[in-house]
Amino acid sequence: MSQAAAPAFLLGALAAFIAVLISRLNRIVDRTIVLNGIPDDDTVRSRLKADLPRLMRRAEMLNRAIFWAVIGSISGTLLVVIAFASALLQIQHERGVAILFMVALGAFTVSLVDFAREVRIALSEFDHYA
Q1: Can you tell me where the transmembrane regions are (predicted)?
Q2: Which alpha helices (DSSP H) does 1-128 contain, by range?
Q3: pLDDT value at position 47?
């Protein structure tokens, strides 16, 4: 049980992080739908469509971040399952669990890097208009 504490906290953090990423991605999708709905003859707002490539880049980064966070979650889940199964069967599992924990943390790190990149380009003057 004591060995499952760190992976359990990691899984909780990853679940919350995935929720944040999905929320941001949903906001981008909603904004893209609104911008695509602007008629081309609306000269006042049609300039806002210039923001679509930036929104697509952000969506790609968030999609990658979600992918890596899910990979980290799967690794963390496998880690807990293997740790309990090997404890039940009295099999040494330290190396396998250590490798899975490093994979989970590595995937989480890659996800955080993609998220940081997305945050860097998130704010623009286009975000302040309908």
Answers
A1: 6-25, 65-91, 97-116
A2: 5-36, 52-88, 94-122
A3: 80
